[in-house]
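User: I'm putting together a small comparison set for a docking exercise, and I want a reference complex before I start. The sequence is below, and the ligand is nicotinamide-adenine-dinucleotide. Could you produce the 3D structure with the ligand included, as structure tokens?
Assistant: Of course. I'll restate your input first, then give the structure tokens for the complex.
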Amino acid sequence: MQIEKMKVVVTGAASGMGRAFALGFAEAGAGVAACDVDVEGLAALAEEAKGLPGAVRTYTCNVADEQAVEAAFDQAWADFDGLDGLVNNAGIFRDALLVKKDRNTGAIRTMSLKHWQQVIDVDLTGPFLCTRAFAARVVENEGGPAVVVNISSISRHGNMGQGNYAAAKAGLVADTVLWAKELARYGIRVAAIAPGFIDTPILQGMRPDALEKMLKGVPLRRLGKSQEIFAGIRFICECDYFTGRCLDIDGGLRL
Ligand SMILES: NC(=O)c1ccc[n+]([C@@H]2O[C@H](COP(=O)([O-])OP(=O)(O)OC[C@H]3O[C@@H](n4cnc5c(N)ncnc54)[C@H](O)[C@@H]3O)[C@@H](O)[C@H]2O)c1
């Protein structure tokens, strides 16, 4: 596929990587349907995208809400006269150990069901709802070429304190493989990217010493850039023989 001709939905486009992806697509000339729950962030993105070759339209949409997703895809499909790309990027984390005993008081703390469910809802159910909405419309309208890119994480291998997040991100790669198999007959490719530690607002709040310790495990000894993850998205969009695989873009980090 030629990226400059694409019409692509980017979820979680108001901040961090999603914002960089939306701007990257628009700089290349693609039409972008930018979805997020952050209304102010979307407005700032629309402002920044003014004058770029590709149009950026914004949609307020909680990816975990079935009705909101269906409505956003109906609207975006109509606004762009069809869609041929989806980047499932919206994500959250709510870290906690499964069970932890306080060293001083002996009190037991656990990961709450609420935090388990919130992460599963946004990071796994969200991509399911969006991919289903996207694929159903593509298939109904004579099929692809079309492409879905799921943003997983290197944490899917099992990062301590992230039982909810690792389950969601591992599940997303499992579904990437089977969606690729199920949807190939309709001309829809599905792939994933598993970023390592990327320089986004989430990490910018970290203490410098904690960040330095974290980077010791990364052979390239630095954070990745959102643009380096976008380079992976560009490759997946443009390589028509790539489907059902996950690209680890992590500076060599192994968990
Ligand atoms: N930053 C990293 O180091 C890193 C590493 C691996 C994977 N990831 C993944 O990359 C993706 C982007 O991460 P980021 O660092 O840019 O985070 P970020 O917090 O900067 O951006 C996430 C965006 O998703 C939006 N969002 C949250 N819940 C939503 C919902 N229910 N519906 C719609 N939008 C919602 C937020 O409003 C925000 O704009 C996430 O899926 C994250 O898990 C990040």
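Residues 11-12, 14-18, 36-38, 41, 62-64, 89-92, 122, 126, 151, 153, 195, 197-198, 200-203 surround nicotinamide-adenine-dinucleotide (CB under 6 Å). Residues 144 and 169 are 26 Å apart (CA to CA).
User: Thanks, that's exactly what I needed.
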